[in-house]
Amino acid sequence: MKWLLVIFVAAIVLHSEAKNFTRCGLVQELRRQGFPKDKMRDWVCLVENESSRRTDAVGKPNRDGSRDYGLFQINDRYWCSNTNTPGKDCNVTCELLSDNITKAATCAKKIYQRHGFSAWYGWQNHCRGKPLPDISSC
């Protein structure tokens, strides 16, 4: 019986696709995804304050009933679909919770192109006009 429990727990751990980035690991991944160097500290600050660098983060319901998903806390009201069919402005499902952040990064860049960093309250409240994270050792 105990071995079944061990196998079950191991299967869950191995199946989990979520990732909790270190700060430098996040910087490296954002570079790989083509985020601009001159805005890197802003992106790191945004991610740290929106999802704590966790790809599996799901926000509490917002006032309008929508939710925010993944590393960049992408909102399901405008940007991602809560169904199994990709949709809304980023043409993705809200399953942006895996350690492969390519779809989430593409969507986040689209949001930024339209609205800048002010699209995210985490950036507005914790990053705008404040000291940004030190990534010089990354």
Task: Describe, in plain words, how this protein is organized in 3D.
The protein has 138 residues and is mainly alpha-helical. 41% of the residues lie in helices and 3% in strands. The protein has five helices and two strands; from the N terminus they run αααββαα. Helix 2 (23-32) crosses helix 3. The N and C termini lie far apart (46 Å).
Note the overall shape: globular
Main β-sheet, spatial strand arrangement: 1-2
Q: Roughly what percent helix?
A: 40-55%
Enumerate how many helices there are, as a single number. 5
Distance between the termini: 46 Å
Q: Tell me the β content.
A: under 5%
Largest sheet: 2 strands, antiparallel
Helix and strand string, N-terminal first? Answer: HHHEEHH
| Category by helix and strand content | mainly alpha
Low-confidence stretches: 1-15
Fill in the keyword field for this structure.
two-stranded antiparallel ribbon; 3% strand; 5 helices; globular; 138 residues; mainly alpha
Protein topology:
Layout: H1 2-15, H2 23-32, H3 40-51, E1 68-69, E2 74-75, H4 102-115, H5 121-126
Antiparallel strand pairs: 1-2
Helix pairs in contact: 2-3
